Amino acid sequence: xxxxxxxxxxxxxxxxxxxxxxxxxxxxxxxxxxxxxxxxxxxxxxxxxxxxxxxxxxxxxxxxxxxxxxxxxxxxxxxxxxxxxxxxxxxxxxxxxxxxxxxxxxxxxxxxxxxxxxxxxxxxxxx
Length: 127
Description:
With 127 residues, the protein is an alpha+beta fold. It has 2 domains: 11-67, no CATH class; 73-127, Pemi-like Protein 1, Chain: D. It has 5 helices and 4 strands, in the order ααββααββα. The strands form 2 sheets. It has a two-stranded antiparallel sheet with strand order 1-2. InterPro entries: AbrB-like (IPR027360), SpoVT-AbrB_dom (IPR007159), SpoVT-AbrB_sf (IPR037914). GO terms for molecular function: DNA-binding transcription repressor activity; transcription cis-regulatory region binding. Keywords: DNA-binding.
């Protein structure tokens, strides 16, 4: 079982120790601030966790997952052809573009790509 000898420092205490250990290398700073795990004779330093904690202590949060509401999936901007030959574009993309039910598109086939061109209202009235 992996164990930490001490709880990792956070907030102002972490920033104070980082300034105190200014002359040390990053791995040693992380280790002395408690960002490591020990299993037997092996010690693993969590440099990424250390950097994240330093940034959070300075007020900069880089975790994009915390900004999401936790529901649904994130848009990947990729689609695949289904077994029946159809391509489905999800609602995340149509909402991002502000499309409404009934909007029409012209399909233009190119070399290794498909382009959808939205039909304008003026063009629909001419036909």
